[in-house]
């Protein structure tokens, strides 16, 4: 297959982890007879410096024509003045919205070799394999806002169509996995949550009768995610609850440097990026963990290019590198860590 992949390194460690990941994709392409063409564009702080805006039109245009987008991270102290007119993170929101990417997928599967890095007891983590699907373009983050001297409001609004499409994505994913979906809401208090629950129940009953569905209130879900994480397969929820629960779920895996994400819409195109930020404290040192970005590239192969065997081969190679204790500084005791390039090389050496 021939695929056109737009690459957005961004800021901080972004260019380092992207530079480490592209050779992994090239190695997979060479082994399986594919050609991947990489087209690099600016987003975030570097785009503000070069073009005055966090998402230049040229970047959005290229992304619209691409088969998939691989992103590093954006942001950093240079652009974090709260009074600044343009901020790097606006670039991320704009590109997700511009491409209609309404479902954010975050898999969490703690690796046996990294269990010690999590604050949760290892016996609770064994066998955990969760996929959170967060609604990404609706809800309270995008509703009308008001502010006066004495009060402020944020409107939370969801339409039936917005709920249906993300629940369908989650239903399809649950079907490909262990056939269990947990929908998270606050239906005892919020009207938007009551709509969420009604629509979810109907879509799942009519279109996914083979998937088991359970509804959970977000407050008890926050507790269960830590006390019995093995009980969950696919979790679907609205934007703000998903924002909070995905960060909580990330603690199950120990290091931010191991967690990948995908943002998908109705079509094949998606944005694939590690969940961590631009890590300005370690940028330029060549010590960042590239595994989360490499695992994001695996999600890209699976969800945008339909290359399941190739995706699985990357995941297995990262797992084998972790088994062999090829750890960057975030995971290794002092003096025993490899650098970013060495970690990526260890993955390439272990590709089937
Ligand atoms: P961060 O994720 O960048 O860093 C948090 C801590 O984790 C730091 O100590 C960092 O060194 C470490 N870390 C993160 N990724 C790592 C990796 N791959 N390997 C080893 N260690 C790693 O979060 P932050 O410090 O809160 O934010 C820094 C900047 O990143 C801010 O400007 C923030 O707005 C931005 N940010 C961007 C994204 C994104 O691009 N999607 C997400 C979160 C934060």
Automatic annotation (TrEMBL):
Where is this protein localized, as stated in its record? Cytoplasm
> What's a Pfam family in this record?
Iso_dh
So where does Mg(2+) get bound? 219, 243, 247
Q: Which cofactor does it need?
A: Mn(2+); Mg(2+)
Domain of life, per UniProt, equals Bacteria
Q: InterPro entries per the record?
A: IsoCit/isopropylmalate_DH_CS, IsoPropMal-DH-like_dom, Isopropylmalate_DH
Which pathway is recorded for this entry?
Amino-acid biosynthesis; L-leucine biosynthesis; L-leucine from 3-methyl-2-oxobutanoate: step 3/4
Where does the entry annotate site (Important for catalysis)? 141, 186
Record field: catalytic activity: (2R,3S)-3-isopropylmalate + NAD(+) = 4-methyl-2-oxopentanoate + CO2 + NADH
Cofactor binding note? Binds 1 Mg(2+) or Mn(2+) ion per subunit.
Record key words, sorted: Amino-acid biosynthesis, Branched-chain amino acid biosynthesis, Cytoplasm, Leucine biosynthesis, Magnesium, Manganese, Metal-binding, NAD, Oxidoreductase
EC class: oxidoreductase
Query: Where is this chain primarily localised?
Result: cytoplasm
Q: Isopropylmalate dehydrogenase-like domain spans which residues?
A: 4-347
EC assignment: 1.1.1.85
GO MF annotations, alphabetized = 3-isopropylmalate dehydrogenase activity
| Residues at which NAD(+) binds | 76-89, 277-289
UniProt: substrate binding residues:
96, 106, 134, 219
Function text: Catalyzes the oxidation of 3-carboxy-2-hydroxy-4-methylpentanoate (3-isopropylmalate) to 3-carboxy-4-methyl-2-oxopentanoate. The product decarboxylates to 4-methyl-2 oxopentanoate.
Could you describe the subunit structure of this protein? Answer: Homodimer.
Q: Which family does it belong to?
A: Belongs to the isocitrate and isopropylmalate dehydrogenases family. LeuB type 1 subfamily.
Protein name per the record: 3-isopropylmalate dehydrogenase
| Gene source species | Pseudoxanthomonas kaohsiungensis
